[in-house]
Amino acid sequence: MGGHEITGMAVLDPNVLNPFVLVSPAVAPALAAAITAVSFSLSLMISRYFFKSYGFSGFGYLLGLPVGFAFLGASFLFEASSLMYRADPLLYPAFFWIQMSLQSEAFALIALSYYYKNSDSNQSGRSVRIRDVLVTTLPLAMVAIPFLVPTFTLATKPYFNYAGLADLSFYMRIFNMAVIGYIFKSTIASLVKAANIKLLYVPAAFALLGLEQYSLVLAYFDNSVSAFIGSAAARIAGLALFAYIMHSVTSRKRMEIEARKAA
Amino acid sequence: MRQEKRHKLQLFYEILCAIEEDTMHNEVAKPTHVQHFTRLSYDKMMNHFDELEEKGMIHRVSGLVAITAKGKMFIEQYDQLINLIESAGL
Asked: Rounded CA gap, A134 and A118, in Å?
């Protein structure tokens, strides 16, 4: 809670766009650099694993994952950039808006991979017209909303309305939580289908990313530093868990052990 | 029972695994053994052999087949892909 009322941000940022401003100004840049560096590296690492798989297989539904995680990594960079330019009345909200759009777009793209995979395997013999319409429009809406809503808000009010942007961030985070909820449900369904407890890590990773969004919603309401620190911890834990799973399932050593067990 | 349609990558993987399995016992694999493992028609299997040979994953010597290093790498990459897809809950 502490510092932001006594800094210059109190004038510029009454509704706290970038939660890093909640932390003491002496610590915020270093903390932002550390959290951003870790989050960005982990996102790119995950993106690379999926990009390699997409390049090898050419499975279209996989493309949402590498692009989604790359967008997520980029959103963290814009978050740090908005903190760097927090005194700039134009760049600060602009970077914040880009960060929000990229992050929501990232989750929507990741969800698309799960959506298309599920719609692929659930395909029954006879196609239903309403289902076809839903299959086409729902993913389009999911990807379009995170881009159109902030753009429309900016187009209708070309000046940066800080309170409005902060409110928008609340709705965008609710959208993110809904999308992550869908991904979580899909991964749990796969876990139940495969009856393999090892598959529990991925839903857990997405649950942590959902918890990050929830903590940010809490930080939006009460400007709580602990909620923000909790969100950063949940984000890093979720990404690290995801990266660890991707590394362990593709590592040569693990595959050799499994092959030996099978023999 | 209706057999699910297999993706081309999966077919290549099954053919290469069958060749690798057979070459554990002999130096080269017999196409009839590979056909038995993969449950493919002979004509289709020969078409896949042509494609795999073109890609440098197998080589054929007097009617018998052997897997190349590139073919073994394909098996490894496919295993990684399946592990990744399954672990991601896809």
From this structure: 14
Chain B nearest CA to A34, separation (Å): 27
Integer Cα distance of A235 and A223 in angstroms? 18
Report the top-level CATH class of B8-87: mainly alpha
Give yes or no for residue A125 having a pLDDT over 80: no
ipTM of the complex: 0.77
Tens-place pLDDT, residues A151-176 = 776 667 656 667 777 778 888 899 99
Q: Tell if the CB–CB gap between A249 and B76 is shorter than 8 Å.
A: no
| Cβ pairs bridging A and B (under 8 Å) | 58
> pTM of the predicted model, to two decimals?
0.82
> Which CATH architecture does the domain made up of A2-262 adopt?
Up-down Bundle (1.20)
Residues of chain B contacting residue A57, judged by C-beta atoms under 8 Å apart: 9, 81
pLDDT value, residue A129:
63
Nearest Cβ partner of B84 from A198, A249, A252?
A249
Domain boundary assignment for chain B: 8-87
Q: What is the least distance, in Å, from the CA of B78 to any CA of chain A?
A: 8
Which of A49, A196, A198 is nearest residue B84 as measured by Cβ atoms?
Answer: A49
Nearest-CA neighbor of A254 among B68, B87, B44?
B87
- pLDDT tens digits, residue range B63-86? 888 999 999 999 999 998 888 888
Smallest CA–CA distance, residue A253 to chain B, in Å, is 12
Q: Where are the domains of chain A?
A: 2-262
